[in-house]
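Can you give me the bound-state structure? Components:
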Amino acid sequence: DAGVIQSPRHEVTEMGQEVTLRCKPISGHDYLFWYRQTMMRGLELLIYFNNNVPIDDSGMPEDRFSAKMPNASFSTLKIQPSEPRDSAVYFCASSFRGGSYNSPLHFGNGTRLTVT
Amino acid sequence: GQQVMQIPQYQHVQEGEDFTTYCNSSTTLSNIQWYKQRPGGHPVFLIQLVKSGEVKKQKRLTFQFGEAKKNSSLHITATQTTDVGTYFCAGAHTNAGKSTFGDGTTLTVKP
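Here's the bound-state model for the whole set.
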């Protein structure tokens, strides 16, 4: 299994530009999570999906952020317009919930976003 | 919102010394997970604890879940340089949905 695949690994963009981050979860996993990691705020959950349906987006910072999951094998996180304070590492993670307890999260390698 | 507090934030030890990080929640947790993130890497799942008072071991690592299911600890015996990284706990307050991550404890080991 290739694990969770994120692209790009690094993204440098100018303030005001649109940024799209991509994620391919592990095949068969039914939950997908987007996290943001910064030194100041740690690991923040932005949004998560169950069977491609957004369940909780309360962590999305503001309307500039949007996430979609058009099918079980692909998700995007979009920032439009981007701002310097959005600079962070963005992780995608997936899990399979088959049982009654939370199951482990499998993280991708992350996308390091720098907005200048 | 529901929070999971983790201490200490940083720990510097000499190789061979022991290390412990603690995780606390003000409300009862359904379960708790521990992850390790190496510098420049991504969080990697270590273990999950579900039962009150549960203790699990992985070689030199010992994980405990408190009797009240509100706290947990990770103890490393005789640290090695390969143990460096940030250790996160992630607590779930229900049996479904999301877990809340602690702020992590960053461990450095001096050879």
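A couple of observations. The interface with chain B takes residues 33, 42-43, 45, 48, 55-56, 91, 93, 97, 100-110 of chain A (CB under 8 Å). Chain A has no helices and eleven strands.
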